[in-house]
Amino acid sequence: MKKVLQTLILIPFLIVGLQTNEIQAQRPMHEIHSMLIFNFIKYVEWPEESKTGDFVIAVYGDDGVYDQLAKFYGAKPIKGQNVKVINVNSVGEINNAHIIYLADSKSGNFDEVIAKVAGKPTMVITDKNGLGEKGSNINFKTVGGKLKFELNQAAFDKNKLKVSSQLVSMAIVI
Length: 174
Prior knowledge:
41% helix; Rossmann fold; alpha/beta; eight-stranded mixed beta sheet; 174 residues
């Protein structure tokens, strides 16, 4: 049963990884990013102290991603918590988020975001070349015309987050 469940959970990643060009032709990138962000949650374990209250996803710099996450996932519980999606306009508004999605347009604020969440169990997801190596947990990247994602294991360890081997196996590990 566990193997079947794992296979079913992997299907969205396989579809995106194998058919990205087709999906990109059919769907806007903010929809693809939103779907992946929500699915990443299933493969990451937060520490016990993060498992109370709402599961907060902060979106900084991309109204399309915010709208998609809020519309499709805002009312769904995950890991025993209600999902709360917030759209932030400054780093100062980011408080107690489980996930921060930092859009390319706000990547100039990357160092400030990383400093804000240092030592906290927060997964930072970015969309700009080089930010994975700089300390983002996950960074979207286009390789050979296909959407991929980089995974920085050291950043997960630093933020006290455990990432599953299934997610690691699908990523470009840096």
